[in-house]
Amino acid sequence: MSFGMIQFVHPAREDITLAGVLAALADPMRLQIVKNLLDRKDCMSCTEAAPCPDMAKSTLSNHFRVLREAGLIQTSKKGVEHRNVVREADINARFPKLLKTVLGFAEQG
Amino acid sequence: MSFGMIQFVHPAREDITLAGVLAALADPMRLQIVKNLLDRKDCMSCTEAAPCPDMAKSTLSNHFRVLREAGLIQTSKKGVEHRNVVREADINARFPKLLKTVLGFAEQG
Q1: What pTM was estimated for this model as a whole?
Q2: CA distance, residue A15 to nearest chain B CA (Å)
Q3: Of B26, B95, B106, the CB nearest to A23
């Protein structure tokens, strides 16, 4: 490990909890981030997946941290960017249909 | 309204939000309370629906408040007791299958 390297915390699949996932999804902005990431079906930077363009960078990175620590997304560093992808397989293995069900309601608030 | 009467806050069906419901369910103890209430299919006092018998009364009533304010349960006063019931019809109308999906995972954590 080199000095200054950012370590991202990713729970193992079996450590992903229902309470953690629900808490992470219990925010319209975070739901929108997950939706954006799933729509693209590819890694996205935090800015690309932002729910709105004028969100403060600290707010945005906090949302990504909550999603990451809940096990919903995988973040990796690519150059100066953080690349994010939804851990669809892990979430669907732990809680089948949960993501699809919740995201289906995401638009109605 | 008589003095000292406790007013319970219940959101109207259309004011129940996805974020509020998910946040309320994002706690193993509250999930267990909802499960207990649904299993009985009848009004229950807070103590009867408690997730564990030794839970502090203040903790328990806080959990019930969170569930009530999210629109998940309806509380009414009957004598000195608070009677609680899950607002199944309201939740299912707003977010079909959400409750069933989430409660299905409640045991595995």
Answers
A1: 0.89
A2: 10
A3: B26
